[in-house]
Amino acid sequence: MRPRSTWRGASPAGSSTPGPARACAVFSRNKQRRATTVLAAEAGNPFVRGNDYGSLTRPSGDWKPHLSVSVVIPAHGHQDKLDIVLAALAAQTYPEELLEVIVVDDGTEPALRLPERRPANAKIVPPLPGGWASAHATNSGVERADGDVIVRLDSDMLAFADHIESQLRWHHAADYLAVLGHKRFVDYKPGDLLPEHVFEAVKAGKAAELFDTEASEPQWIEAIIDRTDGLKTADHRAFRVLVGASFSVPKAIYKASGGMDAEVILGSDTIFGYRLHQAGAVFVPDNDSSSWHLGPRQIAARGEQAKRYRKPHIANRVPELDLKRPRANRSWATPLADVFIDAGPGAEAAADKILGGAVPDVRVTLLGEWPEPNPGRHAPLDDADLEARLLAESYRGEARVRLAAQVENDQAVPYRISLPAQAKPRPWAIAVLVAHANEHRLGQLEVDIPGGTVKLVRTAAAARAEHLGADIAQVWGAERVSEGELVEAFAGPKKSGPRDAGGSGQRLRRKARGAVRRLLGR
Region labeled Disordered — which residues (predicted)? Predict the structure, then answer.
C-alpha cells in the first residue's frame, strides 16, 4: 500500500499527438484528469528525513513524463527581455502539450504583448484585484494555472533547453519538493540578443554559448549548497536558499503553504521558502541545467537599502533566520514557539516563568473550559467558575497569552510545545529545548518530568508526516528524554549534595546561555 496523500495533485498522461495545434486542447483536459488522480499514488512518495533527499530516485535518461507544468512569469515592463524569455521557453525539451506559460502583466504601460516566437500554450493575464508587485502577480498567475507543478520564473531569465524538464524530473520522484533552478548573472542591454537567434540556439542545445560563463556571476546561494552537500546535510533553515528567479513546486503545496506574501514587496521569496518549509517541503537544488539572468542582481544596485527594507519584514514572518531579527527582547508577529499549558493548579506560575524567560518571543495558550461573562447579579465568591475567571482576568492585559478550549495549530509558528501545569521551567528552558531539537535534527522531542511530559513538535515535521501518512520519527526523527539537563530545565534544579554544590546547575546555565545566544543571534 502506498502512503496516503493529503496534498491533492495531478497526474495526467501526455497526448500521443504532438504539435502546437494540439497543445492547448490537451493541456485543458489535464484539469479534468486531476479530479480523479492523486499525485502521491503515482510518485510512490518515498520518505525523506530532514532535507536529505539522497534516497529519492530521480528519473534519468529516456523517460515519459506525465505531470503538467505551468510556468508563471510576473512581469512589469521590459518587453525586449520578455520576448527573449518566451523564445527560450518555446524551445524547451519538456512536452509542449504538458506545458503552459502564464505571463502576469503587473501594470505595464503600454501593456505587454505576446511575441511571435513563444510557447504554443502561452497567455498574458492581468493581476487579480487588490494588489501589485511580484508576489501578488505570482499568486494571480497560480490562480489561473492548470498545471500540476508551478515553475516560477523571472521575466529576465533565459532558460536552457532542458531547464523545465530538469526540474520536473525531480517532481516525478516525490510530490513534496521545492526545486531550485540554477542560474548565472550576465551583463545585458537591449538589442544584445534577438528572439529568433535565442530560439535557434536554445533549440540546438547551445544556450550556454550565448554568454561567457567566466564573465558571469554565480548566485550567492551556491556557497550554502556546496557546503551542505547539495542541501542534503542542511539544517532546518534549508529554505533560505529559495530565491524567486527560478523555482518549482507542486501546485498543491503552493496552495497549502498559503502562497506568497503579497504584503511584502521585496523579500517575499525568502518568506515563501519559509512557508514551504512549514508545509513540509524538501528543498532540492537542480544543477543539471541552467539559465542566464539578463542583467545584474536586483539587490546589487541598491543593496544596503534593499537589505534595510527586507530586514523587519522578514523578521516579523520568519523566526528561524536568527540574524534577521534585531538583538532586542521583543515580540514579533510570528512567535518562535506556541506554548500550550493546561489551565489548573500551577498553570499561572508555569506561564509566568515562560513569559519571563530568556526567550520572550513566545505565545502562551492556556487550555481549559472558559466561562462566558456573567453580567447578572450573582455571588462572585460562590461562582463555580471562579478559578477560571480569575485566571483569565490575570492575563487580560498580556498580549502574549491566549485562552482556548483546545490546541489551535498555527502553521506559521515553527515549534509547538506542550507543558504540564506542574512544570517549573528555568529562564532558559525554551532556548535549551529548541536548541536540542535543532542540534539533533528532531521533529519531536519529549521530556519526562514529575507531573507529566514536556513535548516539542516541529510544525514542518508534523506537516510532512501528515502528508505522507508517516510518523514524525520517519521524516525528521524523534527522541524521549527522562533524565539529564533537559529534565532539569523544566523540573527545576536538583537538590545538590556537598560534592555537587552548584555543579550541574552551573553547567546547565553555561549551556543555556550559549543556546540563547545562538537562538537570538547574539
Answer: 1-22, 491-522
Cell 520536473 found at: 168
**Confidence bin at 304 (pLDDT 50/70/90):** confident
User: From start to end of 296-428, where are the E strands?
Assistant: 337-342, 362-367, 401-404, 415-419
Place of cell 479534468: 32
For the domain with range 20-47+66-323, which CATH number is right: 3.40.50.2300, 3.90.550.10, 3.40.50.300, 1.10.3720.10?
Answer: 3.90.550.10
Q: What SS3 state is found at 178?
A: strand
Closest CA to 425 of 338, 354, 502: 354
Q: Which residues of 93-108 are buried (b: 16+ CB within 10 A; e: fewer)?
A: bbbbbbbbbbbbbbee
Q: What is the mean pLDDT of residues 296-304?
A: 67
Sheet containing 122-125: give its strands across.
122-125, 99-105, 69-75, 149-153, 246-250, 177-181, 282-286
Question: How far is Cα 138 from Cα 23, in angstroms, rounded to an integer?
Answer: 23
User: Dihedrals φ, ψ of 395, to 5°?
Assistant: -115, 15
- What angle do helix axes 268-278 and 133-144 make, rounded to 10 degrees? 50
User: Which 3-state string (H, E, C) describes 14-81?
Assistant: CCCCCCHHHHHHHHHHHHHHHCCCCHHHHHCCCCCECCEHHHCCCCCCCCCCCCCEEEEEEECCCHHH
Domain 337-520, CATH: 3.90.550
Asked whether the bond before 110 is cis by omega within 30 degrees of 0, the reply is yes
> What are the residue ranges of helices labelled H in 44-178?
79-89, 133-144, 163-171
Q: How many CB atoms lie within 10 A of CB 287?
A: 13
pTM of the model: 0.86
Find the farthest-apart pair of alpha carbons in the chain and give their distance in angstroms, rounded: 87
Preceding peptide of 360 cis, ω within 30°: no
**Integer Cα distance of 339 and 355 in angstroms:** 10
Lowest mean pLDDT among 37-46, 223-232, 242-251: 37-46
